[in-house]
Amino acid sequence: MATRPSLALGLTCKAYVVHSAGLYFEVRMNQGLLLGIGMVTLAGIVQGSFAVPMKRMPAWRWENTWLLFACSGLIAFPWITNFATVPNVISVYAGASPSTLVEVLLFGLLWGVGATLFGLAISRVGMALGFALILGITSSFGSLIPMAILHSEQLLAKRGMALIGGSAVMVVGLVFLALAGRTREHDLGTGSGARSGFAFGLVLCIFSGIFSSMMNFSFVFGDELRVRALQAGASNAMAANPIWALTVTGGFVANFAYCVYLLNKNRTWSVFRSGNPSAYWPLGILTGLLWFGGTVFYGMGAASLGALGGIVGWPIFMTIDIFAALFWGAVSGEWRGASRRALIYNWVGVGVLLVAVAVISASNAS
């Protein structure tokens, strides 16, 4: 008879321990989720602000500012960060399969084409509109295609159908944004030349959005490098840096080649000495720091979100990126003088775009 209370007490204690362990695990999971979302949000704010310093460099041509951005943001900061945060990084690359290295470099090269088109597009359609158009397309492609390749069985499931539906809704938002930009050009009375320039800028935005999604392809398909970095002693937050460094090096090739082509064609090498070089050079370097800093924060946040972090975190990253660009575009007066109709088109387009990204994010998180 004396053993029954002891047995009951033992079972109660065991149940309490199991329940407590479950609560602890749930709290840890929630903390990881909040940390991941917080880091991805910070990444979007930082990277969405990277083009702001360029507005303070009016005496330099596009190729001058973009070359400085490419050298600092695609070569200097990525490799300094990579060697500083990943032990034995050379052995990480040496031990990786050749197919992984080729894929990361190839996706990086294609992303570099998108980055070059990005710079050309925002110089024609403006920072706010350009970011919204390009990142809206990038958000959809960057999530949909990796799922189709790596998790094809989910395409016809709830998550896949929501992702496809969200992408379709996103097209509607992009149409409204295109109408907003075209109406703004008409309101400013800049003539047929500007209208044709906007149309060309719109085409650049579309292709930039498609190619820019290759950045997330590198992160998803280059996961072997992240795993090897962890095995080499890198922290979980910094283990993606070997992927980023290799990706943006591939992207640097496309950006560097086009900038040098323009510098020779337009004979603008001497422009590096124009304006206020003592301020312009640090500003140009700052663009690279902001851009790559956002990329590192995204990698940290996506890693905290778990196995589908590259799919779940990407739309959130793009959304915050768009918000930051819209804020800076408004502050810099890009929509000053535009009609009420143009502003309505713009905000309807942004609203539809954010609804689409929210659907994509919610479906991926389910």
Description:
With 366 residues, the protein is mostly helical. It has 13 helices and no strands. It has helices at residues 3-48, 62-85, 89-95, 98-125, 127-150, 158-187, 191-212, 214-221, 223-231, 241-266, 277-304, 309-331, 340-365. Helix 5 (127-150) packs antiparallel against helix 6 (158-187). The longest helix is centred in the first third of the chain and has 46 residues, at 3-48. It starts with a helix and ends with a helix. The model is unreliable at 11-29 and 191-195 (pLDDT under 50).
What would the keywords be for this entry?
0% strand; 13 helices; single chain; 366 residues; mainly alpha
Fold topology:
Elements: H1 3-48, H2 62-85, H3 89-95, H4 98-125, H5 127-150, H6 158-187, H7 191-212, H8 214-221, H9 223-231, H10 241-266, H11 277-304, H12 309-331, H13 340-365
Helix pairs in contact: 1-11, 1-12, 2-10, 2-11, 4-5, 4-7, 4-8, 4-10, 5-6, 5-7, 5-8, 5-12, 5-13, 6-7, 6-13, 11-12, 12-13
Brief account:
This protein is mostly helical.
Residues in helices, as a percent range: over 70%
Q: What value does the Rg take, in angstroms?
A: 23 Å
Distance between the termini: 50 Å
Order of helices and strands: HHHHHHHHHHHHH
Query: Quick one: biggest sheet?
Result: none
Outline: globular
Give the mean pLDDT. Answer: 78
Number of helices: 13
* Total strands: 0
Strand content: under 5%
Low-confidence parts lasting 5 or more residues at pLDDT below 50? Answer: 11-29, 191-195
Broad structural category: mainly alpha
